[in-house]
Amino acid sequence: MPYEISAKVLNKIWLSKNTYLLELFAPQVASKAKPGQFVMLEVPGRFLRRPLSIAGVDGNRVTIVFRVVGEGTKNLSLVRRHTQLSAFGPLGKPFPTPESKAILIGGGIGVVPLIFFARELIKTGQNFELIYGEKSAEYLINERFPDIRFRIFTEDGSKGEKGTVLDGLKITKDDVIYACGPTPMIRALKRILETKNNTCWVSLEQRMACGIGVCRGCVVKLESGYK
Ligand SMILES: Cc1cc2nc3c(=O)[nH]c(=O)nc-3n(C[C@H](O)[C@H](O)[C@H](O)COP(=O)(O)OP(=O)(O)OC[C@H]3O[C@@H](n4cnc5c(N)ncnc54)[C@H](O)[C@@H]3O)c2cc1C
Ligand code: FES
């Protein structure tokens, strides 16, 4: 069950170009949050809250990592410590537990929910690989999470391997794939997997208004119809 709360900003940290980490004091959300879930978080000066994935929990704290793309996230990047922000969560379906090796694919800021998931997989001793790509090194956030091993790709080759996350994809028949990133990446992944029988879970970062399935604002068109 999601909670309607007022979350105190405990910490704000600049991670990389246009990208920030917020630590929120949010005990109820922290106690229930699972990897793959998100919160609807107030952004100062905007009427609608914004959906942001949970990057991790630590005791009473919930970590959010976001990239500035518009007014709302810009305003969020300017909040000061001890600001109270209204929040609603945790929301969304958690990632299902893999039965075999998990391949986690994070394109850009889409890596955020996979960071939380990777930590859970480490805790439970599951075999996994986390492939993370950005346009260039200046956007990378992996150094903030030294406990997780990332396989890094940058499109311009400024760090890690040169290319996109999908260039690094080597899957065997039982691997379970979890992907979060821009729509072109998800489409390209679908083409790669068309001839394979692997299970693949994707987390779509659709624009949202309510976050709870009421307004139909986040509906996406699938081959099987609208969802
Ligand atoms: C379930 C979910 C989880 C998310 N998790 C994260 C996260 O962990 N970190 C993070 O940085 N972002 C995340 N997002 C995206 C984030 O919600 C948007 O970037 C944010 O709402 C933009 O608000 P804004 O006011 O800054 O931009 P707006 O002024 O609303 O829009 C500015 C620009 O950003 C684009 N934009 C707006 N919303 C999205 C979106 N959902 N996806 C892609 N582009 C968008 C618009 O098309 C426009 O070009 C998530 C989205 C969803 C649905
Ligand atoms: S945002 Fe998905 S139904 Fe309202």
Keywords, please?
Elongation Factor Tu (Ef-tu), domain 3; 2 domains; 6-stranded antiparallel barrel; alpha/beta; binds FE2/S2 (inorganic) cluster; 14 strands; Rossmann fold; binds flavin-adenine dinucleotide; 6-stranded parallel sheet; 227 residues
CATH superfamily of the largest domain: Nucleotide-binding domain of ferredoxin-NADP reductase (FNR) module
Biggest sheet: strand arrangement: 1-2-5-4-3-6
Gap between N and C termini:
22 Å
**Cα Rg:** 17 Å
Element pattern in H and E: EEHEEEHEEHEEEEHEEE
Write the layout of secondary structure elements.
Blueprint: E1 3-16, E2 19-25, H1 27-32, E3 38-41, E4 50-58, E5 61-67, H2 71-77, E6 84-91, E7 102-107, H3 112-123, E8 128-134, E9 150-154, E10 161-162, E11 176-180, H4 183-193, E12 200-203, E13 221-222, E14 225-226
Parallel strand pairs: 7-8, 7-11, 8-9, 9-10, 11-12
Antiparallel strand pairs: 1-2, 1-6, 2-5, 3-4, 3-6, 4-5, 13-14
Bound molecules: flavin-adenine dinucleotide and FE2/S2 (inorganic) cluster.
